[in-house]
Design goal:
alpha/beta, 28% helix, elongated, 19 strands, nine-stranded mixed sheet, 372 residues
């Protein structure tokens, strides 16, 4: 094989799983349009292929964080309605308006910057964001009436929607959810009183699954679209990403020999070691050293010694895997292999961070399923 056909590590993205997940999520919010969130390169899954799969599965909106992400999709031929919600003040809003990208405004100043950038003869499509309690982006309630009045009076702007984001929707029953819903309802009443007739969107993945009363006009599934479940209840979500490598070398060591930097692991008996050419430069956290398994030869096997920049070592006991045999570092978990959630739990983080970290120069993506 040529080097280009033999990656040291690969992430497989199952586009059929993404279609399945989005269809399920859309069915849970039958009265709402679906905005598939493809920010951060589609949570590490690849924005353009995922965007196309999402549209095929019924998404009528695509959500990005930065305007640059949205413009990349437009330039690639995506004609679906796009929404971009957070950028630096110096961003060229004119490019967004010209590309028919919906923009977010969280302050009067931001609204004015958008309006000032509108090319002659056009209008900007704007979603006004109310901070209902997350205390990140969004207009504080004290300034909301001023923002709404300014938007209603601005001839270069069409107010398409009001929106907000939930802080604790992944904890069903958390009191903040109802508190935020109440503030959102009050913000909507202010907008209506100012003569606006905006759409409303509030529900993220967790709220799509647990709070049908908050679906409103548009829902914004993100992590659940990629098959990772944000709520503590069983859902038929299929993880779309599998991280793979292969055995590069097999050697037998005697009892008493130690492995990798720092000699943190010593063999208690003669054993076979498999070297896998994937390390922390390829997305395997060094902090999982001595705490992770891989799926090799039809079973879980422990990684021993420290994870290195370019490689890790697997203890295979008396089994002697062939060079070139596949190693799964994480996947859907359907065969018993480790999952992104398992990595996250061991690291004290969330599976969002695991999958979004898998865009690496040496890790090749491969797309599976229809349209791949």
């Amino acid at each position: 094989m040529t080097p280009s056909s033999s990656p040291r590590a690969r992430v497989d993205i199952d586009l059929d799983a993404i279609r399945h997940n989005l269809t399920l999520l859309g069915a849970r919010a039958p009265g709402a349009e679906v905005m598939a969130v493809v920010k951060a390169d589609a949570y590490g899954h690849g924005a353009l292929p995922v965007a196309r799969a999402a549209v095929e599965a019924g998404a009528s909106w695509l959500g990005t964080c930065s305007l640059g992400e949205a413009l990349d999709l437009r330039r690639a031929g995506i004609t679906t309605r796009l929404f971009s919600w957070l950028d630096v003040p110096e961003v060229d809003f004119a490019a967004g308006v010209e590309a028919d990208v919906d923009l977010a405004a969280s302050s009067v100043g931001e609204l004015r910057r958008i309006a000032a950038a509108v090319p002659a003869g056009t209008r900007a499509r704007v979603h006004l964001k109310i901070d209902t309690g997350l205390s990140r982006n969004g207009c504080p309630p004290a300034g909301w009436a001023e923002l709404v009045s300014a938007a209603a009076a601005e001839p270069r702007v069409d107010v398409v929607a009001i929106w907000s984001h939930l802080a604790c929707a992944d904890e069903p029953g958390h009191p903040s959810i109802d508190a935020q819903a109440k503030r959102f309802a009050e913000a909507y009443d202010v907008a209506r009183a100012a003569g606006l007739d905006p759409k409303r969107h509030l529900a993220n993945s967790a709220a799509v699954l647990t709070r049908p009363d908050l679906h409103f006009d548009v829902v914004r599934p993100g992590i659940a679209m990629y098959g990772l479940n944000p709520v503590p209840q069983a859902e038929d979500l299929r993880p779309a990403m599998t991280f793979r490598s292969a055995v590069a070398l097999v050697k037998r060591i005697e009892a008493g020999e130690s492995v990798s930097y720092g000699h943190t692991w010593t063999a208690s008996h003669d054993t076979n070691l498999a070297l896998v050419p994937a390390g922390y430069a390829d997305g395997v956290p060094r902090s999982l050293s001595g705490r992770m398994d891989v799926w090799l030869g039809g079973q879980r096997r422990p990684v021993v010694g420290r994870v290195c920049m370019d490689q890790l070592i697997v203890d295979c006991g008396d089994d002697e895997p062939e060079v070139g045999v596949e190693v799964v570092l994480f996947g859907p978990g359907t065969k018993g292999e480790p999952t992104a959630r398992e990595w996250a739990d061991k690291l004290g983080t969330i599976d969002y961070e695991i999958v979004t970290s898998m865009y690496r120069p040496r890790v090749r993506r491969r797309y599976l399923g229809a349209g791949s």
